[in-house]
Amino acid sequence: MKIRFRSRTPRPRAPRPPIPGTPPGRRRRPALLAAALALPLLLGSCALDAQTTASSEDLASRKIPAKVSPDTELTVGYPSLKVALQLSGQIDKLPFKVEWANISGGPQCSEAFRAGALDVCSAADIPSINAHWTGLDTKLVAAAFREDPYANPIYELGIAPGADIRSLEDLRGKKIAYSPGQAQGALVLRILDKAGLTQEDVELVELASTGDVYPTALGNHQVDAAPIADVNIKRYLKNYGGQGATTLKHGLRDDPAHLWALTDSVADPEKAAAVRELVKFWARAQIWIDQHPEEWVDGWYVKDQGLSEEDGEYLVRRAGTPVIPADWSGAIERQQKTVDLLAKEQKRERFDVKILFDRRFEKVGSQAVAAKDGGAS
Q1: What pLDDT was estimated at residue 52?
Q2: How many angstroms separate the CA atoms of 348 and 256, rounded?
Q3: Residue 373 — pLDDT band, cuts 50, 70, 90?
Q4: Cβ atoms within 10 A of the Cβ of 246, count?
Q5: How far is CA 311 from the centre of its chain?
Q6: Residue 297: which of 283, 282, 280, 309 has the closest Cα?
Q7: First-to-last C-alpha distance (Å) of the chain
Q8: Mean pLDDT of the chain
Q9: Tens digit of each residue's pLDDT (9 = 90 or more) over 284-300
Q10: Angle between helical axes of 106-114 and 126-133 (0-180°, round to 10)
């Protein structure tokens, strides 16, 4: 068994003054975080109306201190990483302070970033793109992929009973669930492009991709097709397979996984040093998960997420093997193609995605794994 790995109109933010007596790089922000999480999760389509883009700061020339201060604190939104570090016995070895936030992914992290209540979180590739287009300045500081991404996709295209869709070309004239600003929405546009179709050839039905919204919409014939992931694939086929429900492989790469950081955070030398150390622990945790599937199923999927052991094992099998590259060139090239497509289809301003990648951290993860021969420190 192997591992697996939306936004709103921006408003100006005043600089955050340090709390008197607080060491550099450290901020206590539970109230801000709670406020951020209380904000509604807006559909990405709302943000797409805004034409403000972030004037991203180039940090390439900024030196990161060789050592991290133990008084530096990061607020990190990555629940599964916290559990992985606990299970592997590494969480108490972090050489800085961490406030763990029970959030991850684009919508929640974007809100927390905007509130100044988060430093780092986990996300795919689309949230950072959408953040740029809505005036939120962020950086990608780590990247992981799947060893065989075509055989181990995150998403499959769920097909509603009776929709008569057997190939991507059969999507013509069909209703497809679409979530602008989320990875699922970008995947839909990429699928249409691959099939030689345009938005005018189909009916895009805007739905937020949360929980079991997409499988339910498929089962109720609200849409004919929708990208679904993880255990939703298994449950959708179990619940509706008898009625003729199927899934279709899209044949595209959908495997990017990133550590995503607020530019203000990695522009701070002390925090940048802490982020570098976090990337090391993150990389080793991915390898630990891959090498300890039974502990991961029990500790994360069953005890933390409340899934059955069967569902946990299913998810581990689907995940494939993690790849943490030392060179981000391929990832940047693929992400640029995504930006070009989204800019065309969503009438956005094209930009060079290199500004989203903080390449000071490019080799940190792979070197950490190599130094320990794939094990945890």
Answers
A1: 64
A2: 22
A3: low
A4: 17
A5: 21
A6: 309
A7: 22
A8: 88
A9: 999 999 999 999 999 99
A10: 40
Tell the CATH topology of 155-248: D-Maltodextrin-Binding Protein; domain 2 (3.40.190)
Task: State the sign of the Cα–Cα–Cα–Cα dihedral 266, 270, 271, 272.
Answer: positive
Residue type at 286 in one-letter notation: Q
- The percent of residues above 90 in pLDDT, for the chain, comes to 79
- Any idea where the domains of the chain sit in the sequence? 32-49+63-149+255-371, 155-248
How far from chain centre, in Å, is Cα 113? 14
The token duo for 154 is 């995150």
Q: Model-level pTM? A: 0.85
Helix axes 30-38, 106-114, angle to 10 degrees: 130
CATH architecture designation of domain 32-49+63-149+255-371: 3-Layer(aba) Sandwich (3.40)
Place of tokens 């997420």: 305
Tokens of 370: 């190599």
The confidence band for 16, taking pLDDT boundaries of 50, 70 and 90, is very low
**Tokens coding 346:** 């969503």
Place of tokens 């005036």: 135
Burial (Cβ within 10 Å: 0-12, 13-18, ≥19) of residue 59:
middle
Residue 307 CB neighbours (<10 A): 18
